[in-house]
UniProtKB/TrEMBL annotation:
Coiled coil: none annotated. It comes from the Bacteria. This is ABC transporter ATP-binding protein. Transmembrane segments: none annotated. Belongs to the ABC transporter superfamily. The keyword Disulfide bond does not apply. Keywords: ATP-binding, Nucleotide-binding, Transport. The lineage of its organism: Bacteria, Bacillati, Actinomycetota, Actinomycetes, Pseudonocardiales. PROSITE patterns: ABC_TRANSPORTER_1, ABC_TRANSPORTER_2. The keyword Ribosomal protein does not apply. It comes from Pseudonocardia charpentierae. GO terms for molecular function: ATP binding. InterPro entries: AAA+_ATPase, ABC_transporter-like_ATP-bd, ABC_transporter-like_CS, P-loop_NTPase.
Amino acid sequence: MTLAVSRDLGTAAVAARVAGLRKEFGSTVAVGDADGQAGIDLDIPDGAVLGMLGPNGSGKTTLIRMLLGLTRPTSGDVELLGRPMPESAAAVLPYVGALVEGPGFHPFLSGRENLRRVAATEPLLATRAIPTAVDTALERVGLGPAADRRFRGYSLGMKQRLGLASALLLPRRLVVLDEPTNGLDPAGTRDVRGIIAELHAGGATVVVSSHLLTEVEATCTHVAVLQSGSLIAEGELRGLLDADATGLVVTTPDADLAVATLRAADIGAYRDDADEPAVVVPAGDAPEVIVLLVRAGVAVQEARRRRPRLEELFARLTEGTP
């Protein structure tokens, strides 16, 4: 199901923007340059699915809280859906769905009752529409059969699903999900991936903070990488991976011969048959590699630049891995 988002606030090239943003807790710098007074700058394009990445303590959740007006920055500016925050929170937040730092609900109420209470606080949701909106959200996250069970009996994954349902009660311009797959099994993780795809197809902007890099790579169009409160890389995911591309992937039915030929010439290579017989050459001059293979009688079907996985790029950015 694809839901179209409301455009009552107008449109803008960016769904969210921070400039010179800095947050300090006493002597601890949570967001910003720890060695000086510089803050971070970040634009989140309208309609993008942005993966916010970083090790624990890198400042992801603090940045998200400042975006949503839940925490005031020490310095810098925040703009959400074209309006300054937190001054415009009352006007902007009805168009924003968020799951931040885990869901909080009444333990002795059922999932349905909890969600109805949340729905009653939504200014853009008419009272008569609440029952349908609640039922739809519960089914969307796979909680329909457990909707009338008490929240205190929910597993961690079920609690997370209910929190996600609260963010999906009505079409949103922006959806912010802080570790949405926390506690979910593989099926639940796939469900979240599908929901993100639906939101993107409907024109919503999605910000996802996650440690599951394979999921980010599968669902996100853009990434922002934080470390120790600093923004160390950001941009379109495909562009970042292409810019970091090194070496070659050679598709050939003669993979063993290709590996032996290249290693005999002191060029590192290994087989990778994940999709079809291929040889990965992490480093080496492309023309030299192709000439060596052809002269050895290797049938070269395709040769392309080796694009790193997001996990490799993330490791290089945050751990200094060569």
